[in-house]
Amino acid sequence: MPPETTKSKPAFAAVILAGGSGTRFWPRSRRARAKQVLPLDGERTMIQQTVARLEDMMPDHDVWVITNNLLSDLITTQLPEVSETRILREPEGRNTAPACGLAAFLLEREAPETIIGIFPSDHTIGNVARYHMILRAGIKLAASGPNMVVLGVPPTRAETGYGYIELGAAVTPTTVGGEAIPVRRVRRFTEKPDAAHARTFLRSGNYVWNSGMFLWSARTLADAIREHAPAMAPLLEKIAAAFGTPEFEQVFAELYPQCESISIDYAVLEPRSAKGEAASELYCLPADFAWNDLGSWAALHEFVSESKEPRNCNVIEAGHDVQIGSSGCYVYSPGKAVALVGVKDLVVVETGDALLITTRDGSQDVGRVVAELKKAGRHDLI
């Protein structure tokens, strides 16, 4: 079982992954205006909310953002509290393993015992107090050895759009604020299942959704990259060594695209779990804080419906609306009058140059629209 840490307050840094394009939120989300920089569920954008709810965890505001050239200027404007030198612009998207690994090598050079939290930039958290409690437990556990901590969301349905984590044996809970937070070993990671397997996972009670949030020390992650992604490690180390010098941008642009495009799950977590749950030093904490990744228009409809209880379960953002015999719809058409008459479970999203009409069930496939537009050469719409 993992030993208790002797450090009362280990250093903590947040790494926000903000490089995606959010194609499932087309037409509002575009390459240069992706989901994370949109105010989908309130006045603040998704990335602003992500950083704001971490403020209490970091008195020194040790935040790093990894994004791309299309979004970096907008993110810099939206996050004035984050140093521009810590908003890193990937010269080419290479998935999450190089991004996480680069952060590890950068921090390892300065303070290898720093606990790094990896956070997607576009998730919502309903219970922030509980979120902080679980993060403190995860930081404590990650600081107690070469441990990798994943946050697993208790599943509420047979979801096929998420990766799953199969839980192993329970170990000694981690105590934070007088509460014992349960800890489970990780048996294995399972990619997005088909519907039959998802139902089996849900019935078993021994699987959780992979939230994409991880905690580990800079040294632990850097060593894991060296072990499991040996071709990538020296490239990232050279980039990290150039950070803060006039040559950084050139070195970054030259070496980063040479890294394999692979997720941190495939590059590190899955091979680490293959060592067996007793030897992998992989642990899972319960992400029981009302998490939602807002992965589609249907998910956004569900999230807003639960939090605001709209009339007839219609979520409408418009200049004025009329609802007659209609229910379960999501409509975004700001500034216009919208009338819903005798329709159910529709998604209608209007922007200045595009109109999306689908159903809530069909909204998972909106990303295919972007693929079709790309094939048609309509880059002005993506």
UniProtKB/TrEMBL annotation:
Entry's Gene Ontology BP terms: GDP-mannose biosynthetic process
Keyword Nucleotidyltransferase: yes
Catalytic activity, EC: 2.7.7.13
All residue ranges annotated as the Nucleotidyl transferase domain in the record: 14-304
Gene Ontology MF annotations: mannose-1-phosphate guanylyltransferase (GTP) activity
InterPro entries from the UniProt entry: GMPP_N (IPR049577), ManC/GMP-like_b-helix (IPR054566), Mannose-6P_isomerase_type2 (IPR051161), NTP_transferase_dom (IPR005835), Nucleotide-diphossugar_trans (IPR029044)
Keywords: Nucleotidyltransferase, Transferase
Top-level taxon of the source organism: Bacteria
Domain MannoseP isomerase/GMP-like beta-helix: 320-373
EC top class, as a word: transferase
Keyword Transferase in annotation: yes
Protein name: Mannose-1-phosphate guanylyltransferase
Organism classification: Bacteria, Pseudomonadati, Acidobacteriota, Terriglobia, Terriglobales
